[in-house]
Structures are given as C-alpha cells and as structure tokens.
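User: I need a structural model of ARFP2 protein from Pachyramphus minor for a docking pre-check later this week. Nothing fancy, just the predicted structure tokens so I can convert them on my end. Input:
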Amino acid sequence: EKFDIVKKWGINTYKCTKQLLSERFGRGSRTVDLELETQIELLRETKRKYESILQLARALTSHLYSLVQTQHALGDAFADLSQKSPELQEEFGYNAETQKLLCKNGETLLGAVNFFVSSINTLVNKTMEDTLMTVKQYETARLEYDAYRTDLEELSMGPRDASAVSRLDTAQSQFQSHKDKYEKLRADVAIKLKFLEENKIKVMHKQLLLFHNAISAYFAGNQQQLEQTLKQFNIKLKTPGAEKPSWLEEQ
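Assistant: Understood. Predicted structure tokens for ARFP2 protein:
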C-alpha cells in the first residue's frame, strides 16, 4: 500500500513538473480564468500594501511608547525639583502636571493605535493569509488539471489497441477527478475573495475612523474626545501594574 502511494505521488509529480516546464517554455496550454486571476493578483498587491501600513503603525507605537516613557521621567524630575526648589516650586509644579497629563493622553492614544495594529495584523496575517492558502491549493489543482488534460489529449491521439484503450479509460477517470477538484477550488476561491473584500471594507472602515479620531483628538489636546473615542470602539486600557504583558510586548 505504501509503495502504491509513493508510486502514485511520483507519477503525479512527474506529470505536474512536465506540465509546468511546458508552460514556462511556451509549449503547453494553460487553463486561465482571467477574472479570478486578476482578483487574486489584486489581493496579493493589497496584502503587500497593508503589510507596509502594519509595519509603519508598529513603528509609530514604538515611537509613541518611547515618548510617553520620556514624558513620564521628565514629569517625575520636575515634581522632585518642585519639592526641592522653593524659589521655582510653582514653575516646576505646573510643568510636572503638564507632563503627567501628556502621559495620560499618550497612554490613551497608545491603546487606540495598538487596537488598530492588532486589527490590521489579524486582517493581513490571518484573514488574507487564509484566503491565499486556498488560492495556493487552487493553483496546484489547476496545474494538476492541465497536466492530466494534456495526458488525456496525447493518449486520445494515439493508437486504439486494447492496452491503449485501457490507459485511455484510466486517464479519462483521472482527468475527471482532477477537473472536479479544480472546479471546486475555483468556486471556493471566488467565494472567499468575495467575503474577504466585504470583511476588509467593514474592518478598515472602523479602524480608519478610530485611527483618525484618536490621532486628531490627541494632537488637538482634546482629552475628553480622546477618551470618548476609546469608549466608542470599546477599547479598554490595561490597569497600571497589572501582571500582564504590556501592549508593546504583545506585538
């Protein structure tokens, strides 16, 4: 049984390799679904662009985290000097309070940007990748389908003795099996592409609105609007000192 499995795998590999080479050198015909392949290429291009956004958004969270940490340290230094410098107590004091407020707003913004990063990461590396895995299966099935179609066509043009007829029947059966597999995966890819597009629009509509509102509120110094943005999107900040990895460690 193992020998038969290996033998079958070897024959299949040989046929597919032969088909692939003939296509590359322009000698063999290739089944093309132009509309579907255009959509697949568009998905791959979209994924590359979203990966770039994800990389930049992660860089932004890193820079914001460093800024918040610096402001926190600066606020502590101002507060300490306020206690030890009576002649400048008021000036150091209000600078300490300003840095404290900036830290709070920065942490709130980080919560929003981190939620944005997490959602884009799921879209790119799970949802899109899942569809592309089905695409790879479809492309393999297409190659097998064309390989067995070519094999059947070659046998059909040969002699029709008893042995040839038997091989032709076998080839016809194998061709039909691979045709069914190819058509099923083609339909699966079309459905997944449709649902992916709908999901992408839904996710990005929400995330881009979140990103815009949070960034705008932060740089306008509107603490109330910034906090309201997180409530609107049901984003909860972690309690300081909680024994969990920080938002940055989870990336």
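Before docking, keep this in mind: Confidence is low (pLDDT under 50) at residues 240-251.
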